[in-house]
Amino acid sequence: MTVREGHEMRWGGLAGLASLVLAIVAGILLRNAPGIVASPETIAMYLAGSLRTIMAAVVLAAAAVALFMWFGATLATAFRLADPDSDAPAVVLSGFALTAAIGFMATAVFGGMAYTLASYPALLVLAALPYTALTIVGTIAGLAIALPLAACAVAMARTDVFPRWMAWFTGFVAVIRVLGAITVLGGGGVLMPGSALAGMLPGALTGLWMLVLGGYLVREHLPSISPQRRQAPGPA
């Protein structure tokens, strides 16, 4: 029996695209955020003078994380329907859940830190410590998102849910996310955690990946998914 997921998949695709848009807007709001090599005074002045902008970005980022989880659940469902005997769909879903949990907690802690430091100016002298720590956490989180990306690559290679070239692209993005995360081992200059190459490049590739997959889901440009149904025991 052939099953068309149609509109359910479309809503998941829309969630992914909305998550991408919200994440981009949040990034634009935080475009003036200083790097971890900035002086403690610069970091303190930014947190104290840009509190409203930071909190707006935090709210948008939290919403983006929730929609990201919906997008991941949709992908896992599509892979499970196409290949119910594989472990890849479960890894996809758990990987998205892990990434969303880390992302939501990091976002909430960043917002709470900024609000607390701005409300108690005496604490601003310590602002560089949690600010740098959260930047490192965000970089290491690239290892978490590499898990669902790798699982998606395997599922795409095993099924015809998406074009085969998407499996190669997804695997490439997963490798870039891992390479970006390991910059915490001592990278400097352009390889410093939070830099354009270590932070923006993996993020941009992940955004492009979500844009392409979200487009396929929204357009319902998916082949018919034929789940393998096990025959119940007993006489035919």
Describe this structure as you would to a colleague:
The protein is an all-alpha fold and 236 residues long. Helix content is 72%, strand content 0%. It has helices at residues 6-29, 40-49, 51-82, 88-119, 128-158, 164-181, 196-218. α2 packs across α4 (88-119) and α3 (51-82) runs antiparallel to α4. The longest helix is centred in the first third of the chain and has 32 residues, at 51-82. Mean pLDDT is 82; it is low at 1-6 and 223-236.
Keywords for this entry:
mainly alpha; 7 helices; 236 residues
Summarize the structure.
The chain is mainly α and 236 residues long.
- Give, in order, the helices and strands: HHHHHHH
Count of DSSP H/I helices: 7
Largest sheet: none
- CA distance, first residue to last residue: 17 Å
Structural class, please?
A: mainly alpha
List strands and helices in order, with pairings:
Elements: H1 6-29, H2 40-49, H3 51-82, H4 88-119, H5 128-158, H6 164-181, H7 196-218
Helix pairs in contact: 1-3, 1-7, 2-4, 3-4, 3-5, 4-5, 5-6, 6-7
